[in-house]
Amino acid sequence: MKRIDAVVRREQFGKVKQALAAISCPGMMVFTFRGHGKQGGLTETYRGRQFKVDLLPKVLLTIFANDGDVKKIIEVITKSAKTGEIGDGKIFVAPCENVIRIRTGEEGQAAV
Fold first, then answer.
1. How much is the pLDDT for 3?
2. Angle, CA of 48, 84 and 55, to the nearest 5°
3. Entry pTM
4. What residues in the chain have per-residue pLDDT under 70?
5. Residue-level pLDDT at 15
């Protein structure tokens, strides 16, 4: 099993969610937050004055998936979240040692 954490643009989240539903993604957790990567934010102009916006709105999707599904999930997220601009996001994949379904006590892949 793997844990997939995907940081995407807030405005791309709807596309990502639809694309994941189309491949029957087992489930996800969604968090909204503010942050920045290498770009360090952006500069905006309001009423003739420039302001540095260093924390941009982002969405973090966390998905726990069976090993055989990881590649497809990553492809779907990458395709649906990509705009071609700086700040499109990142995907992190890490091993998941175990999952336990609280209601039934099931463990491992059966609990995903």
1. 96
2. 50
3. 0.85
4. 40-44
5. 97
26: amino acid identity, one letter = P
Question: Alpha-carbon distance 18 to 59, whole Å?
Answer: 15
Q: Which residues contact 47 (CB under 8 A, 6 or more apart)?
A: none
According to the model, what pLDDT value does residue 11 have?
A: 96
> What's the first-to-final CA gap in the chain, in angstroms?
9
**CA angle at residue 74 from 5 to 7, to 5 degrees?**
35
Q: What are phi and psi of 9, to 5 degrees?
A: -65, 145
DSSP helix, strand, coil percent of the chain (3-state; round to 5):
30, 40, 30
Angle, CA 28 vertex, CA 24 and CA 33 arms, to 5° = 140
